[in-house]
Amino acid sequence: MYPALKRSGLSLATAALSFALSPAMAECVVDTYEIALGESIEAPLSPHLIAHIQKAGEEEIIISIFNDATKISSYTRDSYWNPDNGWATPRIITTDINDDGIKELFVGTAQGMVNSYYWMLMSTENGKWHQVEDVSDPEFCRADRGYNTGVRSGPRWIETYWAIGENGIPFRKYSQTVVNNAVLLRVIYAPDGGVISQAIVAGDHDIFTSSPTYMASVAPKGDDAPIYDLTDKHEVARLKANTPVELVGVDKAYSMFLVEYGNGKRGWIMLEDISYK
To answer: Sheet containing 60-67: which strands, arranged edge to edge?
Structure first.
């Protein structure tokens, strides 16, 4: 994950970071701002578009988009960053993630002990502004279009890559969730949100590379390991220690692996009954 962008003090000057990238995105500029109670900023989005952002109350922020001097959109959102966690003021980020010459606007809406959440606004072809779902800790400046996000949910870390769809709107393309220190659950999504495929990959697996088969074996704990049915999870077989298995998936509670063994048989096995390569 890229290091989080952080600014000290309450200066409203931009902090621009530039990266030399591929010809598809020759320059990546990320501008960040902080805004305190009662203050306002103007964030340029294009030669003609400006976002005016006002911190109107302890938990409210107002965003107005101007085309030259004409207001074309206005939004009000809750925005509360807990000062006890070291972030007393919301952060604003602008960057062009779809390479259309207009910067997207990420407005800080909530910040906790681990995750920082942003509400995203982006321009569409008809000149309207599209409200995109909140994301956690976005990272930018990839060689292709899109961005990464990361979030902790309970004991699990989840990394997501958001690609840019044919309509110019980002969609979740890949996600990888930590199962344990050894392996991750990798999911590939379609633009409509449907799951194309999922796989178990090594814990150091890069989210942008293909997902190879992950082979493991039954842990050598003395007793044979039970295998459970795919539907009602009653015991259907037992595997001896060191029996090779392919890790296929994981259940929603992250307590059991779906494995393939023998001649194409599949079943569930407890996580603690697996030994990793």
So the answer is: 40-44, 49-57, 60-67, 70-77
- Residue 137: CB atoms within 10 A of its CB come to 19
- pLDDT, tens digit (0-9, with 9 covering 90-100), for 42-52: 999 999 999 99
Q: Which of 113, 97, 244 is nearest to 105 (CA)?
A: 97
Contact status, residue 119 vs residue 129, Cβ threshold 8 Å: no
DSSP single-letter state for residue 47: S
**pLDDT score at 126:** 65
pLDDT of residue 272: 94
Taking a C-beta distance cutoff of 8 angstroms, is the pair 42, 49 a contact? no
DSSP lists the bridge partners of residue 51 as 43, 65
Question: To the nearest whole percent, how much of the chain has pLDDT over 90?
Answer: 54
Distance, CA of 160 to CA of 260 (rounded, Å):
27
Residue type, 207: I
CB 234 within 8 A of CB 226: no
268 and 228 in contact (C-beta within 8 Å)? yes
Higher pLDDT, 21 or 201: 201
